[in-house]
Specification:
The protein is of the alpha+beta class and 690 residues long. It has five domains: 145 residues; 55 residues, no CATH class; 120 residues, no CATH class; 199 residues, Hypothetical protein af1432 (Orthogonal Bundle), CATH 1.10.3210; 114 residues, Isoleucyl-tRNA Synthetase, Domain 1 (Orthogonal Bundle), CATH 1.10.730.10. Helices cover 49% and strands 13% of the residues. It is flat and about 100 Å long.
Amino acid sequence: MSNELLFEIGTEEIPAGFLSKAIVDMEDIIHKSLTEKRIAFEGIRCLATPRRLVLYIADLSPRQEDQSIEKLGPAKKAAFDENGQPTKAAIGFARGQGLEVSQLETITTEKGEYIGARKTIAGQPTKELLPVILKDFMLAIPFRKSMRWADYDLRFARPVHWILALYDGNVISLKIENIESGNTSRGHRFMSPASFAVTGFEDYLQKTRENFVIADPAERKNIILDEAQKAAAEVGGKLFYTDDLLETVSFIVEYPVIVRGGFDEDYLKIPKEVLTTTMISHQKYFPVVNNEGKLLPYFIAISNTRPRDITVVAKGNERVLRARLADASFFFEEDKKVPLEDRVESLKKVVFHTLLGTSHKKVLRFRKLAVKIASKVKPSVKKNVDRAALLAKADLESLMVGEFSELQGIMGREYALIAGETPAIANAIYEHYLPIAAGGDLPQTDEGAIVGIADKMDTIAGFFGVGMPPTGTADPYALRRQALGIINIILSRCYSLSLNFLIDESLIQLKDVLKKPSDEVKKDILEFFKGRLQNQLITQGYAYDTVDAVLSTDIDELVEVMEKVKALQSFRQNPDFEPISIAFKRVDNILKDFQNGQIDVNLLAHEAEIKLFSTFDDIKTRVEKGIIEKDFSAALNKLAALRPHVDDFFDNVMVMDKDEKIRFNRLSLLAEISALFHKIADFSKIVTPD
C-alpha cells in the first residue's frame, strides 16, 4: 500500500507485563502527535512481541494540511479615518504582517468589527517531519521500569538493537544513540537470527513469519488457544485458563509451540487451588480439567522454540512442576498437623504494620466490629461471624500461604473444613478477602460479607488514623479498593448499615494509636468514601451533578444514597425537572446564612405565600412518608407540586420585607421547604442554564 508507515523498534526481551499497555500507549501517542501536526491518516495498528514494538500507519498523508492563521489588528473605526483613509494604526499593522493595507480584511467578532490578516501556511512534506515524529514517539513510550545501557543517555524498557523505519517504501533516516534506522528486521533469536530486508507492512508480516516470528499478539493468542485446546482434548480434557494467563504467555513468546506434559495423580489430593496457582502463577502453564471441572494430571506449556524432540521439552517442564508440587504437597501435609485455631496465637508474631500492631491485634479489633455489624444487619449469623473473624487470618502462619501468598483465605477455608468447622465459617474465611480486585466477585454469604466489611474498615480507619491515607500518586495499602469493596458489599447485600457507625466503632478500637482527634479522622474517612462512591456512580453512567446533589446531603446509609441517585436520575426525565431545579436554587440562594425559625401562619398575608404554605403543609407528610419508605421517586413527584407556587411566591411577594417579623416568617417558610428537599438532594448542585 502506498503512503504507509512501518516503524519497528527491535530490543532485548521486554517483560510480558509491559507489552499490553505499551500497545495502547503507542497508539495514543502517535494519534496525538499526528493530529497536532495536521497529518491525516487512515488507521493505526500497533503490535508487540518480547523483542519488538511495531507501529503501522495506513495511508499517511504525504504532507501536512495547510494552516490558516487569523491575526486581529486594531478596531475598524480606529483603522480608518472619517474619509476612509487608513490611519497609522492600520498602516503599521499591515507592515507588521508583511501586507499592503488593501490586503487586510474586516473581521467581525463579539466585540465589534476589526481589521485583520488571514494567512495560509503551507504544510511541510511528511517525510521531512517523520524523523522527529518517530524519535519523539519512541522516547515517549512509558514503561513501569526503564533502563540505560552502555554509556548512553537513552532510557527504554530494554536495550535497543535495531530500528526499521519505512515510509512509502523508503527509509526514514534517523539515529537514536548508536542505532541508525534502516529497512531490515530480524527473525527469531534462536531459530532465525539473521537480518532481512522488507519493503512494506504486508511484506514485513510475511517475512517475520517465515523467520519464526508471529508479530501480531492477537494471532499468537489464537494459535495458543486453538493448539492448546486440541492438546487437552487428546487426553480427554479441556483447557483451564484465564484471560490474564493467555495474554501473558502470548507476550512471552514470538513463535508459540504447544508442549503437553503430565504429573503424578497422587498430587490431585492437594486442593485444586494449590495446583492451579502453582501451574498458572508460577509456571505459566495451562491446567487441564474434565467436563466437571476437576483437574486431570496434565498441563499445557508454551515454548518459544520448535525443538527437535518435543518430548525432551515436555520432560523438562514436568521435572520443574514435579518439584513445585512436591513442595506444595509437603506444605499441605505439614499444615494439616496444626489445627487452624492453634495458629491464631502465632499471629502475635506477625506485624501487620509497625504503627498498627500485629495481625493478632488487628483480628481482635475487626472481630469486635464484625459482631456489632452482625447484630445490626443479621443477628442470626452473629455466632458464625464471631468464629469466622477469629480464624480469618490464621492461615497467614501456614507453610502453604508462606510460600504462595495468593492462597490466603483459600487455604484458610481448606484448613477450617479439615479442622471440622462448618462450611458457613470456612467459606467466610475465604470470602472476607473479596473482592480481590475492582469489579471482582463479592461475598455470597452474610458471614463472609460482614467479616469482610469489618476487616476492610479496620484497615482504612487504621491507616487514616496514623496519618497514612492514600495520595494522588500512591495507595500502597489498597485503601481505595477496600473502600469500594465495602461500598459494593453493602449495596449488593442491601444492608441498612451506617457509615458513621462503622467509622466510629473502628476508631474506638484504634484510639490508642490515632495521630489526631477521632472526629478529624472520621471527617477525612467520610470524605474519602464520598470520593470513591462519586467516582463509581459517575463511571456507571449517572450524571455527575445528580451524584453531587445527592452526595452533598448525606452518605451515611449507602443503600439509601443509591436509591436517591436512581430516583433523581429518573426524575430528570420529568419536563418540569429544570424549572424545579431553578426554582429551588432560588430558595437556597436567598437563605444563605439564615437560621431556621418557626412559621407563624397568622403572619401569612399575601395570597401567594398562603398558597405556598398550604401546598407545602399538604404534601409534607406524604413526602416524608416516601422518604421513610425509601420511595424517593414518589417523594420527588410530590415535591414537584411546589414548583409553580414557589415561582408565584418569588414573582409576587417581597421576601425581604421591611417588617422584620414578616421577613423572618417568609424566610422560615422557605427554609422549611429547602430542608424537605435536602432530605433527598441539594438541588443547588444541579447544573441549569443561566
